[in-house]
């Protein structure tokens, strides 16, 4: 039986404006190819091995085989490999909670959030807290059932490396620990848990994008196709107890200190207005829908609606997908300078101007 070309079911080609990304969700990695190569790949899937080897660019075929994106398999068996469902399902109505406060008393709502279904917590404390205080608080009963906890602390007086290592060793639910305004720069990994101490001030939760902040995995890929992965199933509790959909959302939906039980939290979160950003996927947001990284990027910028139902961002990303350039790279230009307009009035691409900038940019690089 002649073999035919198959494409790995856990790999996905995501086209951008100028190039495509191949997401390898099993290896949690990705590769970039030209849109022409990506289009060629699709035309060869299912074709006989002899045809593929005769007509496909040999360099492309070798690259795809070496990365194990494609394989040759008996033609009659290719349909035995089922497609992965792109339907996103999660067992809990709420999953992520950010609690921001001045001191450890900010963690009092933890039990209510656990009862409401939250499983992943990011805790931000602005007042100094000693390792001993943190140890005593994390030893209390409510923390025994918490699955995952990420800690961002502003100063830990007299904290020694050994004390920080002891904390992450004693409390296995800590997934990461970062201390700001430290005396010196430190970074180490204890029990596969990253611990960082920096002399820098707490930067806030502003979204800064770079390739280092991308994540490639099947859960994020599927969620990003259906929802906005930053806002979806998230709740934020501010220093005053105010309940918001995220730190970036200015609208408050009540106060955690005025609630009686977890049911009150669920009723707030079930509100359509609270969930207004949950389903605003990158495919619905101008510029982002033209980006090959859109299903690996967790972006904290607040999507803004237009009167026609479309969405945009007020702040420009550090990456320009129409040029495939980051701000710090040679040849980068802002969107408006290459003929792309995205603002409250609409979205428009001047194709002639964009093509001229592309020719100039890549000619200079070469």
Structural commentary:
It is built from nine helices and 19 strands. The chain has 366 residues and is α/β, with parallel strands linked by helices. The strands form six sheets. It has an eight-stranded mixed β-sheet with strand order 10-11-9-8-7-6-12-13, covered by helices on one side. Strands 2-3-4 form a three-stranded antiparallel β-sheet. The radius of gyration is 24 Å and the shape is globular. The two termini are 46 Å apart. The model has no long low-confidence stretch (mean pLDDT 90).
Could you tell me the strand content as a percent range?
15-25%
* Largest sheet strand order: 10-11-9-8-7-6-12-13
- Biggest beta-sheet profile: 8 strands, mixed
Mean pLDDT: 90
SS class? alpha/beta
Uncertain segments are none
Order of helices and strands, N to C? EEEEHHHEEHEHEHEEEHEEHEEEEEEH
Principal-axes shape call: globular
What is the quaternary state of this protein? single chain
Please count the helical segments: 9
The share of residues in helices is 10-25%
State the end-to-end distance: 46 Å
Tally of DSSP β-strands: 19
Radius of gyration using CA atoms only: 24 Å
Provide a quick synopsis of the model.
It is built from nine helices and 19 strands.
List keywords for this structure.
about 375 residues
Per-chain topology:
Elements: E1 3-7, E2 11-15, E3 19-24, E4 29-34, H1 35-44, H2 49-55, H3 58-66, E5 70-74, E6 96-101, H4 110-115, E7 120-125, H5 131-138, E8 148-154, H6 161-170, E9 174-180, E10 186-190, E11 193-197, H7 218-226, E12 234-237, E13 243-244, H8 262-269, E14 304-305, E15 311-312, E16 319-320, E17 325-326, E18 340-343, E19 346-349, H9 351-365
Parallel strand pairs: 6-7, 6-12, 7-8, 8-9, 9-11
Antiparallel strand pairs: 1-5, 2-3, 3-4, 10-11, 12-13, 14-15, 16-17, 18-19
